[in-house]
Structure formats: C-alpha cells, structure tokens
Amino acid sequence: MSDFKGKSVLVTGGSRGIGREIAIQFARSSARVIVSSRRIESLNKVVDEIKGFGGDAIAIAANMGRMEEVDDLIERVYKECQRVDVLINNAATNPIFGPILNTEEKAWDKIMDVNLKGPFFLAVKIAQRMIDDNKGGSIINIASTAGLRAWPGLGVYGISKGAVVQMTRQMAREWAGANIRVNCVAPGLIDTDFSRVLIDDEALRSEALKNVSMNRYGNVSEIAGLVLFLASDKASYITGQIVVADGGGLC
User: Model-level pTM?
Assistant: First the structure.
C-alpha cells in the first residue's frame, strides 16, 4: 500500500460507500483525511472509525450542490490543513430512475449541480491553490460506466457522468504544466447503497449482471485501491485517463 504520510486528502461524498472506503484506505496509508458530505453525523462516524485505528481525519459538512457551501468547504479545509495534496471528487446524487422523457427540470438541476457544477468548481478552486503553492497535486474524479454507455433508467445521471469524463480530460490537459495530475475512475456495478435499486430488484440485478464478464458486483475496496494507486507516486506519469473498473462490463 502506498504511503501518504504528510499528505492532506479531501474526499467528498465521504460518509458512505465508495467515498467512505477511499477515506479509510487513505487514512490507513498515513494521510490526513478530510471527509465531506451533507450530514455531519454520518461524517463523524467515519472520523471516529479512522481515529479508532490511529488514523488522522476531520469532518466538514458541505452540500456540493450549493456553491456557497463549496466555497466554505475550501476555506475551512485550508484553515485546518493549509494545503490539499489530493482531491477525490466523489460526491454524487441520482434522485430519479426512469426514462429521460419523464425528467423534470428540478431533478435535472439537482443532478447537474451536485454531480458536475460543484465538483468542477471545487477542482478549479483547489487547482488554483495548488498552482499558487507551486507544489502540484492529484485530482481524481469519480464518474461511472453510465457516463460511457447508455444505461436504461440512468439517463440524466449518465449525462452528468459523461460530462465528468470530459471535464477530467480538459483539466488534465490544462494543468499538467503545473504538475497537477487529473484522472477519472469509472466504476461499474458496485455493491453500495447508491446501487440498491439495481441490487435489490431480482429482475434488474439479473439484467445488470448479464453483460458483466465476471458475473458479479464489484466492492468498494476494489475501487478505493485503484484510487489510491492513481493518487500515488506510482502513477506519476498518468494523467487525463479514464480508468474503468466494471468486471468486464464494457468488453
């Protein structure tokens, strides 16, 4: 496992699922971890778990769909840690499951604000600080295979994640000269609460797994391990890449 001693890592959507596991694995690798999501109570449980094994973590609540809270998050992170070496843009939402013909404007705006606008400006503002500090860094955006192919019922969510994919490439191109690496992980079917609608319904589960070569869901530790690799010095020549982890679903 890579050593992130002396590094500060900000993980959004860090209270559960993939984000929680990413935060825990970074903490086990000696990083100072800042976990963020909407609910401070859930974040405090993650922080307590990390401190329980001797890790270093703090919790800062923020709704990625509200720009004033994104700005406040950045200010509080830099007040507490003075720097961010690694940003994990993991926060996401998907309040609708169904055909895009049924999409209401309110739902569209919520998905785009949380999944795209918030992560975009969080990355932009932290990248500017990385540039000002002249120390570089690593930004990893969590997308989805729904952003790389059409999934029934996940239309607007998939559109937002497709934009995250292109956002990653553009950021990587523009910031490489400042030694800021930007990569993207696109998970497939992962066993989390976020995927519960697909897991709990037998027909949907069977249909979803039909095209997965490994014929199983992934687990959060598999995604977190990939994220830590991309953030580490072992990936120092990797930027602008979309790394798919889906058990062979896109083969």
Answer: 0.95
pLDDT digit string (tens) for 84-115? 999 999 999 999 999 999 999 999 999 999 99
Domains of the chain: 8-245 (3.40.50.720)
The one catalytic residue among 78, 157, 217, 237 = 157
The answer to whether 157 is a known catalytic residue is: yes
Question: Contact at 8 Å (CB) between 186 and 147?
Answer: yes
Look up residue 3 and give its amino acid: D
Residues 65-74: tens digit of each pLDDT = 999 999 999 9
Q: In terms of Cα–Cα distance, which of 8, 179, 181 is closest to 82?
A: 8
**Beta bridge mates, 187:** 245
Q: Give the residue carrying structure tokens 């559109």.
A: 159
